[in-house]
Amino acid sequence: MFEEEKQKIANWLLNPDHPESLSLEEAEERLRTLSLWKVYEEIEVPLFPILKDMSATGIRLDHSRLASLAKELKDEIAKETKEIFALAGGEFNLNSPKQVADILFTNLGLKPLKKNSKSGTSSTDYETLVSLKAAHPIVEHLLKSRELIKIEGTYVSKLLSAPERIHAVFNQMGAATGRFSSHDPNMQNIPPVVKQVFIPSDGFTFVSLDYSQIELRLIASLSGDETMIAAFKKGIDIHRLTASKIFKIPLQEVDDRMRGMAKTLNFGIIYGMGSVAFSKQAGVTRKEAEAFIKEYFKNFSAIKNYEEDIVMQALQVGYTENIHGRKRFLPDLASRNSFLANNARRAAINMPVQSLGADVIKLAMIKFWEKYHANSSVKLLLSIHDELLFEIKDSKIDLVIPDLIKIMESVLSLSVPLKVDVAKGKRWSDLS
DNA sequence: AACCTCACG
DNA sequence: ACGTACGTGAGGTTC
């Protein structure tokens, strides 16, 4: 069954960045020699019909709520546009970064923050506009209009012409790390304001189950870092703990700003972030950023060792892999171009973590499917990296939720428990 | 088609 | 001198 798809999946597993087109037999032979057979047979192949069914089910749209949201947005956009043209002293195309740059940096004499790397023109992106907020009143209106135009143009106006149910396509070979991607439309990047237009089928309730801090739990387990493992086992707020370590203060003295910085650092570490990026993100000097990162790795030394080992191994064999053998080849690691080599280095650090996260949710979907695919009271609607959105018949909710949690939390056994948070409600924007 | 910008995990 | 946090999809402008 579905031989053609199996062939695509097999080829993609062999090299996600550059899938070849070996015959099914050749590809399966190579999967065996590369220890990818289990990922192929136990994860990717069973997943194919599940994704098909998820798309076929679709998610219901509340067209009357959508219409009122659309009107609201259009009115606000018109208002902002009028303000902007008045302050600029003339009309221009708000969607043209070139014309926005002309207004800001030529007509109004504001100072550019940075140049675009490819074209050399002055950037007008979010970061730039935020830095210019105090310099001219037009800037905050530009920020607001960008936000509104994005939401209206990319999401709301596209949904207006959609049927009652949205059937997005989920691609199991969408990302080189093993994550899904979604398109037509992309249901994995719906902004909070737009979520209000999605509602469950009659007699059903949305139930969202998401893995709490899954990537941080995974890197704690993979690296064997005792400090972080102990924190997760005890259920301590991990960002708070991190803040107390890098600021060298007791847990009780951690304030929101410190916790926020620690959170940035915790996520940044998974991506191989350096001191320049951290200083920018956290709003501290580069020197301070260096000190924080140093202190971080002093306290979580196993994570530092783990990341160094990953890079060393990747340099030797030319790829990184996760504990299931899922691989990503990174030829740029050996590049003399340091930009390319550094990008590959960070991708190498991130891959074993992000891809294991992808495996966790894929395994959960398969376990769910084995038990529930014939049960018309429970429908899987969306899979969003660390979250599964279901609709469940109202009368079955209390029965089913604990079982879904159990399924999701027990797909893998690691040094750290997997934790799932639940929220339910009659609108996607309104889950609690 | 390349580029910039920006939505999400 | 310069630029770096991973992974996506999508809209518009410019050439």
What this model shows, in words?
The two termini are 41 Å apart. It is built from 16 helices and eleven strands. The protein has a four-stranded antiparallel sheet. It has a three-stranded antiparallel sheet with strand order 2-1-5, with no helix packed on it. The chain has a two-stranded antiparallel sheet with strand order 3-4. It is α+β, with helices and mostly antiparallel strands and 432 residues long. The structure holds a DNA duplex (9 and 15 nucleotides).
Which class do the helix and strand fractions yield? Answer: alpha+beta
Q: Major beta sheet, specifics?
A: 4 strands, antiparallel
Query: Strand portion, in percent?
Result: 5-15%
Task: Provide the residue-averaged pLDDT.
Answer: 95
What's the CATH topology name of the domain at 215-355? DNA polymerase, domain 1
Spatially, the strands of the biggest sheet line up as 9-10-6-11
Q: Quickly name the level 1 CATH class of the domain at 215-355.
A: Mainly Alpha
Could you name the CATH homologous superfamily of the domain at 215-355? 5' to 3' exonuclease, C-terminal subdomain
Report the count of strand segments: 11
The number of distinct helices, counting runs of at least 4 residues, comes to: 16
Secondary-structure element series: HHHEHHHHEEEEEHHHHHHHEEHEEHE
How far is it from the N-terminal to the C-terminal residue, by CA?
41 Å
User: Which percent range fits the helix content?
Assistant: 55-70%
Return the CATH architecture of the domain at 215-355. Answer: Orthogonal Bundle
